[in-house]
Design goal:
It is built from 7 helices and 2 strands. It is mostly helical. The protein has a two-stranded antiparallel sheet. Helix 1 runs antiparallel to helix 3 and helix 1 runs antiparallel to helix 6. The longest helix is centred in the last third of the chain and has 37 residues.
Length: 168
């Protein structure tokens, strides 16, 4: 006799502890602190962004882990694409010296991604997954950072040699 399959529906966003963890980390990264005397909120993301390259990589890693967690819990391919785009915008523009630091205080990609997932859950569309696409996007961003690091190394090396030849 065949055993009937049991369909389990994911828990609602507000009761799923793993998704509440995502929400807490996103808040820590983007809006944990308030500028005294204002309603302006910021998190660790813009503060870590003040550390060249390492800060941007660490915030990218945290954001990527949040999206991976959200993806494991039912974010559709469309939502994952939008989340990856938010992270891409935050990472690329946040890496620009000075302008990127200001941008990091205003653009809160993790909060945006949690809101995307919250709306996705509210619509009852939490069945899909975008693992392959997200893997491709993350690989592309890792290649980008690798090329950026190599470019910075090559530029520094060239400037060093140029300085030794012309200023010695």
């Amino acid at each position: 006799m065949p055993v009937p399959s049991v369909v389990t529906r994911p828990q609602p966003f507000t009761t799923d502890e793993r998704l509440r963890w995502v929400e807490r980390v996103a808040r820590l990264m983007d809006s944990q602190f308030t500028l005294p005397g204002t309603r302006f909120r910021f998190g660790l993301d813009p503060l870590l962004g003040l550390i060249p390259f390492v800060g941007d990589l660490s915030t990218f890693a945290v954001s990527s882990m949040l999206v991976l967690t959200m993806m494991r819990h039912g974010a559709s391919r469309h939502v994952v694409i939008r989340m990856a785009l938010n992270i891409f915008i935050d990472t690329i523009l946040g890496a620009i010296p000075i302008i990127g630091n200001i941008f990091d205080f205003a653009y809160k990609s993790n909060d945006r991604n949690v809101e995307l997932l919250r709306r996705h859950y509210a619509e009852g569309k939490y069945q899909g997954g975008g693992r392959g696409l997200l893997t491709l996007v993350l690989l592309g961003m890792l290649v980008f950072f690798g090329l950026l690091a190599w470019g910075l190394w090559a530029l520094t090396s060239w400037l060093w040699h140029y300085g030794q030849v012309h200023w010695s």
